[in-house]
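Recall the central idea of this unit: under ordinary conditions, the amino acid sequence of a chain determines the structure it adopts. In this exercise we apply that idea directly, starting from the sequence alone.
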Amino acid sequence: MTKITRVVYDLEQFKNFHSCAYLDLVTKKTGYFIIHDDINDIKKYVEFLEGLTTMVGFNNLNFDYQLIHYILENKDYFLNLKAQEITRILYDFTQNEVINTKYPPYSIYQCLINQIDLYRIHHFNNKARSTGLKKLEVNMRMEKVEDLPFKHYSLIKKEDIPKIIEYNLHDVKATYLFLIKSKSEIELRKSLSKLYNLNLINDSGVKIGEKILLKEVSSKLKVPAQELKERALKNSNKTINVKEILIP
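Accordingly, the structure predicted from this sequence is:
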């Protein structure tokens, strides 16, 4: 069996249910893991995650990856719990530490598994450009676009699971289609990251320009980049009279 190392993925988290659906970027085959009542895939799930090198998602850095990191960081604890206990802990973590906080608990620059976030690459985390996966599915002319008929606090029944997994896999396939359309953007970021020795893979075009400019100025002035950023923040409230800097 070919070892899976690079996947497109998506998570679903409810009060008593957790699932991870994925698409293998080499074989294009799909799969999933479930944690719910008498179904507990946690051991296979952790082994799967530990074998990965790259995970591609949509808004995954702020949500999906936070859960992945939490599971891996506490794997020894989770491996000894029952499914009901795991889903309760993951749900509480999602609500208290991920969704209802300004910044995610785990740094997006210190991922245990390399992440590619298409949401960030296309600058959809900017309020003026914010776009959800469902809107992209419409724009990509997918045959089926739907939302799950369950709220995050719903208690999922065994008969609900096939519907959730179908939805979970559908979002994975939509993300994969968007990944194909984003190939040139990703290749550009990979080449620039290598050229400037910076991590630019999940940055928007504007952010890439800022990082490269900061590095070049830092190098020329022989001043650490962090110090330059602090100076800029300190002077951010000052005004400049444009008339005084224009050449006649």
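The mean pLDDT is 94.
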